[in-house]
Specification:
Elements: H1 2-19, H2 24-44, H3 49-56, H4 58-81, H5 85-93, E1 98-102, E2 105-109, H6 111-129, H7 149-162, H8 170-191, H9 198-225, H10 232-239, H11 253-273, H12 278-295, H13 300-317, H14 320-344, H15 349-355, H16 359-372, H17 383-392, H18 404-432, H19 456-475, H20 483-496
Antiparallel strand pairs: 1-2
Length: about 500
């Protein structure tokens, strides 16, 4: 109960950081939220192997802390001197996870991103102390659903923390809060105050493309040598398949595929809005290379996400009506096939479940859990425990729903699902704010530009990338527990409602 109360305090501090204007109070709130994360994890895992080893080796613990503090101080100095380096470092650290043992299980933690977060918070405290944090006043005030984005983000984290008081798996829920929601929320608070100039956007695209190409190169080497860097689960599965899946520097081929899909989407946006030039040819070649890399992942969810992202770009650039018409035609075709093929061809639901790695059963089991506790669910992080106990038995091989709405419904019930849907609506409203003035596919004249908002190409890229992530979460999961989601929302929000006078300017 004490852990849940402390987690609620950390979530409340994060809420202040998300909602407040740049100030000393906001910087202190970010620091409090960030500092409480390792404290909560240490308390939860006090008797685990890694924590015990550190407790029994004070010299090692001191050395680790000193190294971490030195890196954080260096990052803070760099960010304070060159504010543009904050988003660059965030983007560089975004994909990289370090395998560690937590709670007796292997966990892949975003340690580089946590260090960047710490440096950003320390830089914010330094600027606040010398009164260098200027009011972040947007040129266009958020209105309608868009103005609820930040409150709903803050409320979603607080609601998750409240669920720790009754969850069936408090340890997992606490880890999700501390490893994902709180650090990513702090990253959002730091990124949302950045003023995105054209040069900075070009740097953003360059960093994303550069990292994607490096990951693609590693993936090609893995594919050619038939040897993966890590993840024994994928290594063993490759031994039993006719195809060979790669994961590059990522732990999971689907997460690697998601990153490639987002990079391709952003490159496609740059191509669609760019004038014909040598850069366009280079971007086209890059897109082709990343597409080949995506094929080596054999990630169905990533291919679907890429199609969703590209469809969004086509709708914005040319015609929303034609894209919607195509989607309606596709839906009708699927319904007709399902209606008539059921009588002509015996659809093997067991085979479908096998082809989706058991996800059909997981979705069905998740809905059973939702029906059992429809109001508030089994609590944050409890899907695995509840699924084994109530549905599949203790020997179930896979116990993650891999479908975000199902996970939310089972763990947080109608209350959590309502917050989830409201948050999605507010995010899309913010990312779409003012789009009708600049997007030809929404009725705007060609080459339209809104001086009060960010460049149309960049806004289209972020919106399409977010749609791709959203679609990916419906087939693989990982919404607010993916830092990419928070970063896309932060950049999209600051492009829709730019702050001309910020410390990052």
């Amino acid at each position: 109960m004490i852990e849940a109360l402390a987690a609620l305090v950390a979530a409340a501090a994060l809420a202040v950081a998300i909602l407040d204007q740049p100030s000393m109070r906001r910087s202190i709130a970010m620091a409090v939220a960030g500092i409480m994360v390792p404290v909560l994890i240490a308390g939860d895992q006090w008797h685990s192997g890694p924590i015990t080893e550190l407790r029994n080796s004070p010299a090692m613990l001191v050395l680790a802390l000193l190294c971490a503090l030195a890196v954080v101080a260096l990052i803070a100095w760099v960010v304070d001197r060159w504010p543009v380096m904050l988003p660059v470092l965030v983007l560089v650290a975004l994909p990289f996870r370090i395998p560690l043992n937590v709670g007796g299980e292997d966990a892949n933690l975003l340690v580089p991103l946590y260090l960047v977060m710490g440096g950003g918070v320390l830089a914010s405290l330094i600027r606040a102390r010398r009164n260098d944090l200027l009011p972040a006043l947007p040129t266009v005030a958020p209105a309608g659903l868009a103005r609820w984005l930040k409150p709903l983000l803050a409320a979603a984290v607080v609601l998750y923390a409240l669920g720790l008081f009754y969850t069936d798996d408090r340890s997992t829920g606490l880890q999700n809060l501390c490893f994902f929601l709180i650090p990513f929320g702090v990253i959002f608070a730091l990124m949302a105050e950045v003023e995105w100039t054209r040069d900075r956007l070009r740097i953003l695209l360059g960093v994303v493309v550069g990292l994607a190409l490096v990951c693609a190169l590693v993936g090609f080497v893995e594919y050619a040598t038939r040897d993966l860097l890590w993840n024994q689960v994928v290594i063993r599965s490759n031994d039993f398949h006719v195809y060979f899946r790669v994961n590059s520097l990522f732990w999971d081929p689907n997460v690697y595929g998601r990153y490639l899909a987002l990079a391709i989407t952003m490159v496609a946006a740059a191509l669609l809005w760019a004038k014909p030039s040598r850069e366009s040819v280079i971007l086209a070649v890059v897109a082709a290379v990343l597409w080949l890399a995506l094929m080596t992942t054999y990630s169905q969810s990533s291919f679907i996400a890429l199609i969703a992202g590209l469809a969004t770009l086509i709708a914005l650039r040319w015609s929303l009506k034609w894209v919607l018409a195509g989607l309606v035609a596709l839906a009708v075709g699927v319904i007709l096939f399902g209606t008539f093929a059921g009588g002509l061809v015996k659809l093997d639901l067991g085979a479908i479940n096998k082809q989706t790695s058991g996800r059909a059963n997981l979705v069905e089991g998740g809905m059973d859990l939702f029906e059992a506790r429809p109001l508030y669910g089994y609590g944050p992080g409890s899907f695995s425990v509840a699924f084994k106990r109530e549905v599949a038995g203790p020997n179930a091989p896979v116990t993650e729903s891999h479908t975000e709405p199902v996970t939310v419904a089972a763990e947080q019930g109608l209350i959590g699902l309502a917050f989830y849907l409201a948050l999605l609506a507010s995010i899309l409203a913010a990312l779409l704010a003012g789009m009708r003035k600049v997007m030809p596919g929404l009725g705007a004249p060609p080459r339209s530009y809104d001086p009060d908002r960010g460049p149309p190409a960049a806004r289209a890229a972020i919106l399409a990338a977010f749609v791709a992530v959203l679609v990916h979460t419906l087939t693989y999961a990982g919404f607010l527990d993916d830092p990419v989601t928070w970063v896309l929302i932060a950049i999209g929000y600051s492009l829709a409602f730019p702050c001309r006078a910020t410390s990052a300017a």
